[in-house]
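tokens incoming
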């Protein structure tokens, strides 16, 4: 009786192991067939746009000794007035101008213990949809030194404000490009592309015209008025 039960248990165990092996083979084959019936490709599209917003940062700077801080602030205020006059000449609206506070930073040198000096800084920011106006202002800011002002262009940046809408509009073009790429690959193996199975968009690249310096994390060029907006999509298609 014991031997019969033992034999039965061994038989059942062997059957379970065999069943598991058969199922495992079937699952692997099913997965293999499934993967061979799907083709994943990356598609992209780009469009050239013109920036519609400009941002100009004008920097004011004075270096003074500790005993001349008061006169230094007076000089900064005078320089600010000269910059303001330039902006008024170019008909920049008050709503397009913002001023940062005057900051004071101690300069370190060998004689700081006996003759400490400080840098007084202030920034004036101009933001406008009039690209050419802001560009023209940036060109003449250095000329203000002829009036005794110590000013410089901190930066001149160009932005495209409709980027979110443009990204959505370009996605369909990127998917079509992915589909065309998939079709070319499929035809080389004698097959055809079926329905799209999945799609995920990549990062947006805002680049200078004809630039190829893309980034895995996306990029946003602010140095040029004309820009290429590029969108990528990774898509999977079924194969027939």
């Amino acid at each position: 009786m014991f031997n019969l039960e033992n034999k039965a248990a061994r038989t059942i165990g062997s059957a379970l192991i065999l069943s598991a092996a058969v199922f495992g083979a079937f699952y692997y084959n099913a997965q293999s067939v499934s993967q061979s019936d799907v083709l994943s490709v990356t598609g992209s599209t780009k469009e050239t746009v013109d920036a519609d917003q400009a941002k100009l940062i004008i920097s004011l700077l004075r270096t003074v000794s500790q005993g001349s801080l008061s006169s230094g602030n007076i000089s900064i205020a005078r320089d600010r007035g000269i910059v303001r006059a330039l902006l008024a000449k170019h008909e920049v609206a008050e709503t397009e101008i913002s001023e940062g506070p005057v900051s004071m930073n101690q300069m370190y040198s060998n004689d700081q213990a006996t003759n400490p000096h400080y840098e007084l800084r202030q920034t004036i920011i101009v933001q406008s949809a009039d690209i050419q106006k802001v560009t023209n202002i940036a060109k003449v800011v250095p000329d203000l030194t002829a009036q005794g002002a110590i000013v410089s262009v901190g930066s001149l940046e160009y932005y495209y404000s409709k980027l979110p809408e443009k990204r959505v509009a370009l996605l369909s073009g990127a998917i079509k490009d992915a589909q065309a790429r998939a079709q070319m690959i499929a035809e080389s193996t004698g097959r055809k592309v079926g329905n799209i199975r999945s799609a995920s968009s990549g990062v947006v690249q805002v680049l200078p015209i004809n630039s190829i310096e893309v980034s895995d994390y996306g990029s946003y060029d602010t140095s040029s008025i004309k820009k290429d907006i590029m969108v990528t999509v990774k898509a999977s298609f079924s194969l027939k």
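note: Confidence is low (pLDDT under 50) at residues 1-34.
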